[in-house]
Write a structure and sequence with these properties.
Keywords: Hydrolase, Lipid degradation, Lipid metabolism, Signal. With about 180 residues, the protein is mostly helical. The chain contains five helices and three strands. The protein has a three-stranded parallel sheet with strand order 2-1-3, with helices on one face. α1 packs parallel to α2 and α3 crosses α4. It is globular, with a radius of gyration of 17 Å.
């Protein structure tokens, strides 16, 4: 279980270390995945997979729980900080409109996995297929804001982070224990 948590963290940190220095023109940043990268989408859902109360957020700059499954910044925050960009907002945030769309969006949702039955205990989470559907909606909104060609340039030039799979291991272990294996 520790390996399932450490490997994605190391991959994320390697992405930060390998990322180029901040460029003059900011890149959009799209995030897909689970609780390691969710920055608040689940706050807008009726679900038990939430991080909207302490101890979450106690070391975040505002010292408030934000929906990040962390006491402070998460991997996308650190990457954005390293690139000199503002963090992408949760896709479900009402603040994600207008020029904020140019920054990108975070589609991640705690509890999801590669498998569709991962996280069923949380009832209402944004499964990876739904995250991709939201990404299509995002692109429609972006095209309406900046036009077809500019939207295509923004999306094609974006940084993309996908982090998931840890919950699949947790569910597998839970089921094996439940079966007595």
């Amino acid at each position: 279980m520790v390996a399932a948590l450490v490997v994605p963290l190391l991959v994320g940190l390697l992405a930060v270390a390998a990322a180029p220095a901040p460029a003059s023109a900011a890149r959009a940043f799209f995030v897909f995945g689970d609780s390691l990268v969710d920055n608040g989408n689940n706050n807008y859902l009726i679900t038990t997979a939430r991080a909207d109360a302490p101890p979450y957020g106690i070391d975040y700059p505002t010292h408030q729980a934000t929906g990040r499954f962390s006491n402070g910044l998460n991997i996308p925050d650190i990457i954005s900080e390293h690139l000199g960009a503002e963090p992408a907002l949760p896709y479900l945030s009402p603040e994600l409109r207008g020029d904020k769309l140019l920054v990108g969006a975070n589609f991640a949702s705690a509890g999801v996995g590669i498998l569709n039955d991962t996280g069923v205990q949380f009832v209402n989470i944004i499964r990876i297929g739904d995250q991709l559907q939201y990404f299509r909606e995002y692109q429609r909104k972006l095209r309406a804001l900046v036009g077809e060609e500019q939207a295509k340039r923004i999306v094609n030039g974006a940084l993309v982070l996908i982090t998931l799979g840890g919950n699949d291991f947790v569910n597998l272990l839970y089921n094996l224990i439940k079966l007595g294996l």
